[in-house]
C-alpha cells in the first residue's frame, strides 16, 4: 500500500488532495495544525475513501509535532511514498506596512515549514527505496507580484530549495516537484487580504488590492490542482515544474523569454488601468 503524507489538509488544495489520493487507493496521512477542523475533510470523503484517511496533528512550525508524526509514521508503516508540502498562507500588504516579524512568520510556515517537514520525513522515503516530494509553490514562486512581498519571497526561496534538492535526490530515485498554481478559489485569499483595505490609498494601490480580491473570488476550481497532484503521484519520474491555472503557463514563458523591461511595461500598464 502506498502512503502519502500531506500538510495543511483542513481546507483548500490540501483537503482536496487528501480526497483525491484516498480515491486513488493511497493511505493518506492528512496532517493539520488543528485536528478539530477534520470534519470538513471527512464529511466530503466517500466511505471507502474516508477509511483510507488518517488525520494527524502537525503544525509545520512546531518541531516537536513534526517529530511526533514522523515517529508515528515510522512505527505504523515504516516508510513513506509521497510527501506533499502544501501548508501555507499569504501575507498581503505593501512593503512599508509589514513588520519584519510578519516576514519571519511567513518564512517560518511557507519555507522553513517545508524544510523542517522534508528533513524529518526524507529518511522514511529513503527506506521506501525512492518516492516523491511535491512542494506547493505558486506563480508567485517565479514572478514578484506587488502587494505580496513576503509571500513572493517565501515561494521564490521554496523554488530555489526545490531545484537544488531535486538534483541532490534524483540519483536516489526521489523526485522533487513544484506545483505552481495561479489564482484558485480557496480560503487563502480571505485569510491573507482581510486586513488589506483599499481605502485611503493612492489609486495604484487601490487598483492592486481590488484586483487581488477579485482574483480570489473569480479563482478557478481548486479540484483542478488536486487532480494534477494525483497525476504527478502516478508518474514514474515527474518533472520539476507544473504551472497550472489561468495565465500560469504564459506568465512563466513571458518571464523566461522576454526582456524584463517589456514584462515590466506590460504589468505596469495593466495596473495603471
Ligand atoms: N489558492 C490559491 O490561489 C493558491 C495559489 C498558489 C499557491 N497556493 C498555495 O497552495 C497552498 C495551499 O493553500 P490553499 O489555497 O489551499 O489555502 P487554504 O485553504 O487557506 O489552505 C492552507 C492550509 O495550510 C494550513 N496551514 C497554514 N499554516 C500552517 C501551519 N503552520 N502548519 C500546518 N498547516 C498550516 C491551513 O490550516 P489552518 O486551517 O489551520 O489555517 C490550511 O489547511 C499554500 O502553500 C498556498 O501558498 C494557493
UniProtKB/TrEMBL annotation:
GO MF assignments: oxidoreductase activity
BP-aspect Gene Ontology terms: bile acid metabolic process
Matching PROSITE patterns: ADH_SHORT
Keywords: Oxidoreductase
Gene3D superfamilies for the chain: NAD(P)-binding Rossmann-like Domain
Keyword Heme: no
Residue ranges constituting the Ketoreductase domain according to the UniProt record: 2-182
Stored Pfam families: adh_short (PF00106)
Family according to the record: Belongs to the short-chain dehydrogenases/reductases (SDR) family.
Protein name per its UniProtKB record: Short-chain alcohol dehydrogenase
